Amino acid sequence: MVQRWYKYALWLSLITIFYNVIEGGISTWFGAEDETLALFGFGVDSFVEVISGAGIFHFVIRMRRDPDTTPDAFEMTALRITGTAFYLLTAGLITGSLFSIYYGQQPIDTTVGVFISVISIATMYLLYRLKLRTGRELNSDPIISDANCTKTCFYLSFILLGSSLLYKLFGIPFIDVAGSLGIAWYAYKEGKEAFEKARSRKLACAEDCC
Predict the structure, then answer these.
(1) Is residue 102 part of a domain?
(2) Considering the domain boundaries, does residue 37 fall inside one?
(3) Overall number of domains in the chain
(4) What is the pLDDT of residues 157-171, one digit of tens each?
């Protein structure tokens, strides 16, 4: 039964990786085309989540083979790269937001942002529930921690939906910037959490992470 749940965890991590690759590609492409910083930042965040997902995938394989092993160099490196990428994303979004305010730039269209966020809300909630159940069945704090980080993606999707929808319906000035800064805040928190995990050599959070 335990091996069955580990296999389930592997599939969930693979689905997360492939979904984020597709979401990241679409979001960054249309974010650049439509000049919406929030959608572009959301897409970059998805690509960073791919790196994090690779670390979780490696963790599940390791635990499936031998539950008594400790986090290895690959997992620690993945955490440090993830943390660095999130910090760079935070800096990039803040810088981009300042430029948008200074030059008065507004998105051309935010329709894609609305569609992407709605799909992401449904997908991330489903993955969160499935990962949480799997983590509890395996009594695995790292998998539960990964579920909580998936829940963060769920929150990010609402930020993107709010900023995209408000601009689409009402053309509120700089609402795209507000969405970008919201994503930057969560990216900073995720980066900080990744480095804390790397320092403690624990893949689980001390408290509800992300």
Answers:
(1) yes
(2) yes
(3) 1
(4) 999 999 999 999 999
What are the pLDDT digits (tens) for 192-208? Answer: 999 999 999 887 764 44
Q: 28 with 44: CB under 8 angstroms?
A: yes
Q: What CA–CA distance (Å, rounded) separates 104 from 119?
A: 30
pTM recorded for the entire structure: 0.95
Q: In this structure, are residues 168 and 108 in contact, taking their beta carbons and an 8 Å threshold? A: no
Q: Which domain does 110 fall in, by range?
A: 2-200
- Please check whether residue 208 lies inside any domain of the structure: no
* Residue 205 placed within a domain: no
Q: What is the pLDDT of residue 210?
A: 53
